[in-house]
Amino acid sequence: MKQKAITPAVDPSQRVPLKEKLFFGAADIFGGGAQALIAAVYLAFLVNNGVSIEKAGLIVMLAKIWDAISDPLMGAISDNTRTKWGRRRPYLFAGGVLIVIAFALLFLPLYGMENSALRFSIYLLTYVFYSTVSTVINVPYTSMSTEISTDISEKTKTNSIRLVFSMVSSGISALAPIILIEQLQDGILKVGQFSLIMIFAFGILYCVPLVLASIFCKERADIPKIKTKFQFKIFLKPLKVKAFVYFLLSYLFAFTCMDLITANIVFFADYGLKLNMSSSILLIVIMLSYAAMVPVLYKLLAKGWAKAKLFRLGIPLYIIGIVCLCLYPSSWPSWPVVFCCVIIGIGLSGCQMMPWILFPDIVDVGELKLKERIAGSFSGIMTFIRKATSAIAIGITSWVLSWEMVGFRQPVTDYLTGIVTKFEQPMSAVWGLRMIVMVPVVIFISLAFYFSSKIKLDNKRSLKVKEFIDMQNRGELDIDKLSEEDRTIYKAIEKELF
């Protein structure tokens, strides 16, 4: 049953000016775009530089081991930082400057290097460095999204603007590199030229908004006076919050699905479906359909629909679209494939959009249960999960395509010219590419649907959580002294979300 939206007056000290909302939202051009870019082209980039499919997947997997350490460390470091600029902003500035250097190293054209072990080591180390810079940016930024205001309405508006920038950046960061990688595979573009575009165009695109946000934005949540010593058991505290665990699992499975589609779209469209059109067209249609649903979702949100419900609203359509696309006969005309992509875009809209809007509410639930606000730990885990989605997508792709029974024939780059030559694929590879997308996506998005249904959090309950936090911070939260109605609500929150 739909609930009426509740919009209490905003505390003037917690109001976020529009200019600041825009600067903060624009900073997520990196967060939304970089992961999409890496998922879309990095596997193909490594392969075109002479790294085998299986070793390319191994590079990503090994880098994620370091991520498992660096993300929680960054969460604790950020939580314990005390400067006149706040806890989070210094890291946005430093990370914004370093990201250009990270991209320069990440996209080194090493196709002419004869020592394959050295090439593997260089790409592994550069990916680890990029992952570290990404952590320095994303963990504090995600934390700051919960602290730019303590007012639920202001946080929702700010994170909604952030989502628009993230969505546009994801589109640009996936589509443009995919077009470039197709030109690379068709011999129009050389590997070195591709690298220069990645470094200068995208490095600067991600750098500037982060630096501006670090200068013009501020945190409005109170900073705890007492610092905490880093311990993994403290970092893992958020996992004691039931609602956060369900949220993480929903987020992991939903975004892995999108990364699987993005990571495979070039090979999938060219070799799997054998389309007479650019793979970028498929991605454009999916993203435009997704974008068209955003106003609809915001309208439903304004009417009081629960964010977790909107997360899973289109998932059945998502599954139908993926199955139709992956089983579409390559001998049929190409144009009906577009309709499959429209269905996919509409279906995935909720589960791609809602996590960013729901996250601050989940952190509030954690503060109520844990009696401390450790947003850095929450965002550290979430940031790791987001980076893990692209690793899972690239890992699944590289492992399956490296199987002998699949028989995928890797493109080859000429050592002297940097021009790539691609090959006709056997039927086993054609169906391997189709199944890489269909089987994991259907399984993962079904799991995302299940876990999101466990998040019993709506607008009315989120406001009550905030009310209880305020009482708790004043030392006035005594369950036995609450009104009968509030005691019932608290017990329900405790049972279903704690």
How would you briefly describe this protein structure?
The protein has 498 residues and is mostly helical. The protein contains 17 helices and two strands.
Describe this structure in words.
- The chain is 72% helix and 1% strand.
- With 498 residues, the protein is mostly helical.
- It is globular, with a radius of gyration of 23 Å.
- Helix 2 packs antiparallel against helix 7, helix 2 packs parallel to helix 14 and helix 9 packs antiparallel against helix 10.
- It has a two-stranded antiparallel sheet.
- Strand 1 and strand 2 form a beta hairpin.
- The protein is built from 17 helices and 2 strands.
- The chain folds into 2 domains: 422 residues, Up-down Bundle (Growth Hormone, Chain: A), CATH 1.20.1250.20; 41 residues, no CATH class.
Helix segment tally: 17
Question: Helix- and strand-based class?
Answer: mainly alpha
Number of strands: 2
> What fraction strand?
under 5%
The CATH class of the largest domain, by name, is Mainly Alpha
Strand order of the largest sheet: 1-2
Percent in helix: over 70%
CATH superfamily of the largest domain: MFS general substrate transporter like domains
Low-confidence stretches: 1-6
CATH topology of the largest domain: Growth Hormone, Chain: A
Cα gyration radius (Å): 23 Å
Number of domains: 2
CATH architecture term of the largest domain: Up-down Bundle
**Tertiary shape:** globular
Instruction: Determine the mean pLDDT.
Output: 88
Order of helix and strand elements from N to C terminus: HHHHHHHHHHHHHHEEHHH
Largest sheet: 2 strands, antiparallel
Distance between the termini: 23 Å
